[in-house]
From TrEMBL, chain B:
ABC transporter domain: residues covered: 4-233
Domain of life (superkingdom): Bacteria
PROSITE patterns, per database record: ABC_TRANSPORTER_1, ABC_TRANSPORTER_2
Xref: Pfam families: ABC_tran
GO molecular function: ATP binding; ATP hydrolysis activity
PANTHER family linked: ABC TRANSPORTER ATP-BINDING PROTEIN, HEMIN IMPORT ATP-BINDING PROTEIN HMUV
CDD domains (UniProt xref): ABC_Iron-Siderophores_B12_Hemin
SUPFAM superfamilies xref list: P-loop containing nucleoside triphosphate hydrolases (SSF52540)
Keyword Nucleotide-binding set for record: yes
Name this protein carries in UniProt: ABC transporter ATP-binding protein
Automatic annotation (TrEMBL), chain C:
Family: Belongs to the binding-protein-dependent transport system permease family. FecCD subfamily.
Topological category with respect to the lipid bilayer: Multi-pass membrane protein
Gene3D superfamilies, A to Z: ABC transporter involved in vitamin B12 uptake, BtuC
GO molecular function annotations of the record: transmembrane transporter activity
InterPro entries: ABC_BtuC-like (IPR037294), ABC_transptr_permease_BtuC (IPR000522)
Keyword Transmembrane in annotation: yes
Keywords, sorted A to Z: Cell membrane, Membrane, Transmembrane, Transmembrane helix, Transport
Protein name per its UniProtKB record: Iron ABC transporter permease
PANTHER family according to UniProt: ABC TRANSPORTER PERMEASE PROTEIN MJ0876-RELATED, FERRIC ENTEROBACTIN TRANSPORT SYSTEM PERMEASE PROTEIN
Superkingdom assignment: Bacteria
Record flagged with keyword Magnesium: no
Compartment list: Cell membrane
Main location: membrane
């Protein structure tokens, strides 16, 4: 499993890539100069998990509310030890952090407000490929002053990923299908998980490399060998009806795998390996059955 | 053969009798004028007689099932309502609804009745015009034709000549009088005592819900009755051109 | 009769066009062959499981809305009476959302249309109570605004409180309506209620004709008003409730279609019933084709298109009736 070298972020817009690279460079520089931050607050699900993996004991003082949701977070047990925050500037400020960890999609007003109040905010771009995982680990290691721990985790990750590569005779065609008919293409984290597990992604055939709405009709006509649907959230939403449409079950040569895209698929952390393992096992089962 | 029989018909509104113990029989061939000052209970009496209002006492019409009643009496409410832009012919054809079997369209007999009503009211030239675009007087004629098409032995009309010009008033009353001569009966409420005196064969005088006089116009429109019930003096004379009645002055 | 034939041809043509419209172009011949053959090829699945139910639902929902609009207008003798505008559709949407979010619909599938029907009955009752027998325009419009606003607010509240992250985005669907990705499941859920509603409303023609002359005259012609009122309430609630339960609230169909067709049936409320049912079917089919052909990637809601056509007409009608008000 070779991964692209360099610090590329693989985000779609070049400007944000430049900015993110700049941010990483900046944080790396500051971390080298100053001492590691003593009180760190995370306001984003993905930074929650990266920080929980890398932070020194007592360094992380609060995580976002979603970190306690077992459907979204892989580190609920560790997160439960910490209080949650609602990701708003007011309550975050009152925690008196030295550093706030946020995503690039965190409300810009919140980020701006915190910076205005003199609090350092580190922004993490969402991962769009498996190769982003070591980058995020490195960025978080630098931000927390925990570079060694980050290097260790990266080595483990690379080794485990390489171990999942097997000699395949054919690559089955799969689709990832979420509520509202959203599908993830090859240039998304979920799509990359699918690729690493040995599948071709039909969303790429439909021109949805970065993800987008794949009309149900088009999905049926693409007739993939496997359809992976998103997790079924509690409560009802009309947006999820499409996942239960009879047309999906009417295709004789298409297997349905429901509720596979769960917490392992959301963030660019080493937990994505579990998603790759699960999908790979599924592929092997399909090959045996076929 | 009695076309309408009311006995002791009484309508209450908030413990107050609007119509108070009215007993009347109407036979074929009568043109009955229902007169009385505002609030005397004319409309209420007619609606109660039709069974459109809850009433005590007996009304031969109210006692009938709805479908049979619709073939015994036609009703022209005071409001000349035509809600949709339908043709004159279509409005008149509505009068055939009580005669149509469930789900049936107009049959030959129904068309004949509609044609007769149109001829009777001389509406042939405007048969295909839109009823809502006609003048008030023309609409009144269309609605009378509608009632005629119902081909009932009895017709009840609530102030059918209110708001019409003299020519239309006279023409309308002549139609009613003509129906009576042909053996059908009409009960018509009206404020114009002159028209009532000239065209009706019989008058019912209503005062505060009570029937205070019932008989030919000359016996009902006495100076005493008119003064007591309407509070006016009147000029009454039988002339070679018919009865002339003219209210003159307030008594007080 | 010429009108009936014309409308039937129009509905048939639009039905065929609806079957042929979608994100991927398919030749008419291929599509028909795929529709006929249940051979499990992807194209036949698309035609039989996605496009056919969608076109059928458009017909059913359009007919329901057109018929209910014509019937309500006939009863209230007011061209502004329309299930969407007077809040019946909004109330039905609230009923459907309640059935879904309480989990009732998951436990018992018929709870969805039943709950929509129940709320629609409440809304019609309220409207009839507030607007009075003659359905005066001003009270009708004001009552409609109030009921729509309340139903809309409660719908949003219920969806915002849902634990499902997608529920809040569903507000648009329930308020604007869409036929995207509906299936035969929805047809079987709605059809029985619609059939009952259609039967109740279709039988009202003669009574509504008689009502042209007012309640008193109609009653004297043998029309039994209490029965008429009951049939109207249940018929409207059943057809609009079922339509809304599966496709959200689609407004203005019952306003635009009877208005367009009234001159062609000589203004007669009875003839307007079936004409509006056919016209409604044609209109919803056409709108559903337009949302797919004009904005193929946008999942534009049907209600958006209907409002663009219907709202100006609504304003025009208000202007016209305003002159008749005292």
């Amino acid at each position: 499993m070779a991964r692209p070298t360099g610090r590329s972020m693989l985000v779609s817009v070049p400007i944000s890539r430049t900015l993110a690279t700049f941010a990483v460079a900046l944080i790396t520089a500051t971390a080298a100069l100053a001492d590691a931050p003593a009180r760190v607050v995370s306001v984003n699900l993905c930074t929650d998990q990266l920080a929980l993996m890398l932070a020194a004991p007592g360094q992380l003082v609060s995580v976002s509310r979603l970190a306690h949701d077992p459907g979204s977070s892989v580190m609920v047990e560790a997160a439960k030890a910490l209080p949650t925050n609602g990701s708003r500037a007011e309550e975050v400020y009152l925690l008196q952090p030295d550093l706030v960890l946020a995503g690039t999609f965190t409300d810009p007003a919140t980020v701006q407000m915190l910076r205005k109040l003199g609090i350092k905010v580190a922004l993490f771009a969402p991962a769009t490929a498996l190769s982003d995982v070591p980058d995020r680990l490195a960025q978080m290691g630098a931000a927390l002053g925990r570079q060694q721990a980050a290097t260790r985790l990266t080595a483990d990750f690379d080794a485990a990923l390489a171990g999942l590569d097997d000699a395949q005779t054919a690559r089955p065609r799969a689709a990832i299908y979420y509520a509202n008919g959203y599908s993830s293409g090859g240039r998304t984290l979920a799509g990359d998980i699918l690729r690493a597990a040995g599948f071709d992604n039909v969303a790429d055939d439909a021109g949805l490399d970065h993800g987008g709405t794949l009309p149900l009709e088009q999905l049926v006509l693409l007739a993939p060998d496997l359809i992976v649907t998103g997790r079924d959230y509690p409560g009802q939403a009309r947006a999820e009806d499409v996942l239960a449409h009879p047309a999906l079950r009417a295709l004789p040569d298409t297997a349905m795998a429901g509720q596979l895209t769960d917490q392992d698929w959301i963030c660019g952390t080493p937990a994505v390996l579990d998603a790759v393992r699960e999908m790979r096992a599924l592929r092997l089962r399909l090959e045996h059955a076929g | 053969m009695t076309l309408l029989s009311l006995s002791d018909l009484t309508v209450f509104r908030n413990d107050c009798p609007i119509v108070d113990g009215v007993t009347v029989r109407v036979l074929p061939g009568e043109c009955v004028g229902l007169i009385g000052p505002n609030g005397a209970g004319k409309t209420t009496l007619l609606r109660a007689a039709l069974g459109l209002l809850e009433a005590r006492g007996y009304s031969s019409l109210a006692a009938l099932p709805a479908s049979e009643r619709a073939r015994a009496v036609a009703w022209m409410p005071q409001a000349r309502e035509i809600a949709w832009p339908v043709s004159v012919e279509a409005v008149i054809a509505l009068g055939r609804i009580p005669h149509l079997p469930r789900g049936a369209r107009l049959r030959d007999a129904d068309r004949a009745a509609v044609d007769a009503a149109i001829a009777h009211m001389e509406l042939e030239p405007m048969r295909h015009r839109t009823a809502t675009h006609l003048s008030g007087g023309e609409q009144a004629r269309v609605l009378i034709a509608r009632a005629l098409a119902q081909e009932t032995p009895l017709l009840l009309a609530d102030e059918p000549i209110a708001g019409l010009d003299p020519a239309h008033q006279i023409a309308t009353m002549q139609v009613f009088a003509g129906l009576a001569r042909a053996g059908r009966s009409v009960i018509v409420s009206l404020h114009d005592l002159a028209q009532a005196a000239r065209h009706c064969t019989r008058l019912l005088m209503l005062d505060r819900g009570q029937l205070v006089a019932d008989g030919p116009p000359a016996q009902v429109l006495t100076a005493d009755n008119v003064a007591r019930v309407f509070g006016v003096t009147a000029f009454y004379r039988d002339t070679p051109q018919g009865v002339v009645f003219q209210p003159m002055e307030l008594t007080k | 009769m010429r009108l009936a034939a014309l409308l039937l041809v129009l509905v048939a043509a639009l039905f065929a066009a609806s079957l042929l419209s979608g994100p991927l172009p398919v030749s008419a011949w291929q599509a028909l062959a795929a529709l006929a053959g249940d051979d499990g090829t992807p194209l036949s699945v698309v035609m039989r499981e996605i496009r056919l139910p969608r076109a059928l639902l458009a017909v059913m929902i359009g007919a329901s809305l057109g018929l209910s609009g014509a019937a309500m207008q006939g009863y209230l003798r007011n061209p502004l009476a329309e299930p969407g505008l007077i809040g019946v559709s909004g109330a039905a949407a609230l009923g459907a959302v309640l059935a879904l979010q309480t989990g009732l619909a998951a436990a018992f599938a018929l709870a969805l249309p039943l709950s929509a029907l129940g709320m629609a009955v409440l809304a019609v009752l309220l409207i009839l109570m507030l607007a009075g027998p003659r359905g005066a325009s001003i009270t009708l419009i004001l009552a409609g605004i109030a009921i729509s606003a309340l139903a809309g607010a409660l719908t949003s509240l219920v969806l915002n409180l849902s634990p499902n992250p997608f529920a809040a985005a569903d507000i648009v669907f329930w308020m604007m309506g869409s036929l995207a990705d509906r299936s035969f499941t929805h047809i079987w859920l709605a059809l029985p209620f619609m059939l009952v509603g259609w039967a109740l409303l279709a039988g009202l023609g003669r009574s509504l004709d008689a009502l042209t002359l007012g309640e008193d005259a109609a009653q004297a012609m043998g029309v039994r008003l209490p029965r008429l009122r009951l049939a109207l309430i249940l018929g409207t609630a059943a057809s609009v409730g079922a339509a809304t339960a599966v496709a959200g609230a689609i407004g203005f169909v019952g306003l635009v279609v009877p208005h367009l067709l009234r001159p062609f049936v000589g203004g007669r409320p009875s003839a307007l019933l079936w004409a509006s049912a056919l016209g409604g079917a044609a209109m919803v089919l056409a709108a559903d084709i337009a949302v797919r052909e004009v904005f193929p990637t946008r999942d534009l809601k049907l209600g958006v298109l209907m409002a663009l056509v219907g709202a100006p007409l609504f304003l025009h009608l208000i202007y016209k009736t305003r002159k008749e008000l005292p």
